[in-house]
Inverse folding.
């Protein structure tokens, strides 16, 4: 099991005062937790640049009435089935739906899959949301 | 129903050549679709700045063994239940799980909820992935 | 004068180990300096959202042969002369030049000026680089 | 010399209406220029990922009273003198100065130099602003 370690940060009191205000507004219980989150964000950014396995969600908005669209999206997902953990479909209104595809794999492949889904005719919006497998966090 | 409109873009042939290479690599069927996606991205960015209703996904990674964590996250989600459409839980490994909360509402409230979940003790990583309700796309 | 304050961060040793590797690669002399920089980045981001006075650089690439272009850019800069601190011109090659305009003012006005310069016919690329007046850092 | 080429974009009239409002607010003279800028941004992003030569500005805020700081920054700039085109120094107030270093080279080296300057003790804020040499735009 991992254990906790401590280290000390020294900074200007004016800067600390502003940081305290910011993290209070964000609902942080302690400075330490806020700093650990900043560190986590920096490490996840690196994880994506270094090519290690990552987790992510691809979020799409599309009109499910468009003919052939869901078939096309299904085909693409099958070509990348080794990356896909799960996918979920939400009805936003009569025509629009939000689909969330949870993936894990190499950043390059994950980006490729997201690109193909975005490029599909009829998809109105798609974005890739980077996360982490949590192994190294 | 909406109807299609056309307009013409004129640009340098060298630039067009590079754009064609880029969108071919991304799997776009036509230049028009690639441009429409660039426009869609720009509009969704504006939607988030202007305060209109948006859709989004909040993605969190945490260790479900942490005592009290899931109770705390549930409490927060109840405080913002009017924003939450659905949430989904994925087991990444023995300890880590990925939770995806789909929300819709004003950008300010959505950011507030995401901030509170990120600030919760035990949450390793959280990010907010902006999308759109699709109404204006 | 400001004085230094200290606080302690406690985090998982695995996470600290990864952070140490990251900041070593980035050339940081101490963990404390690296954390202070993460805090500074978070505060500057807030400065831009809150509407306080900021400093920034607008960077443009354009072909100085385009007729009327530099006159147009000069007109725009005069309309916003109260924001502009200095501007600098660099010859990239026979046709391309890089112009850097240093500005300070409200984020809204700074974005407006950057937008107008980017929209000017003949400007190939323009981006706004957020910085800070340093007063609160 | 390069020549102009044209292509047609077809999109939903509702979407076009929103795009027209957005670009009018940003001061664009024509839809075509606005689209060409979106394309340029996408190409510059790719330029940075692909490792080709880029141009950039590194912007720093620091207190010039800090002992040894300007010497340290000068040493770093000398180690990377092959990247540096020019640098400019602006006095923000009694203690703070803004320094802008214009660079061109491989994205990897440019990021490395920016990282080292940011990591230098006494530098309050540093950011790297991506631009392009304009050759391919």
């Amino acid at each position: 099991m991992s254990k906790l370690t401590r280290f000390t940060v020294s900074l200007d009191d004016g800067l600390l005062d502003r940081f305290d205000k910011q993290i209070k507004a964000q609902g942080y219980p302690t400075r330490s937790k806020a700093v650990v989150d900043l560190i986590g964000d920096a490490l996840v950014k690196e994880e994506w640049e270094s090519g290690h396995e990552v987790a992510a969600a691809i979020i799409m908005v599309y009109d499910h009435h468009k003919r052939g669209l869901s078939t096309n999206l299904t085909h693409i997902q099958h070509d990348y089935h080794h990356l896909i953990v799960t996918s979920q479909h939400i009805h936003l209104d009569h025509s629009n739906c939000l689909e969330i595809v949870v993936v894990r794999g190499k950043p390059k492949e994950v980006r490729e899959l997201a690109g193909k889904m975005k490029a599909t005719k009829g998809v109105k919006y798609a974005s890739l949301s980077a996360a982490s497998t949590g192994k190294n966090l």
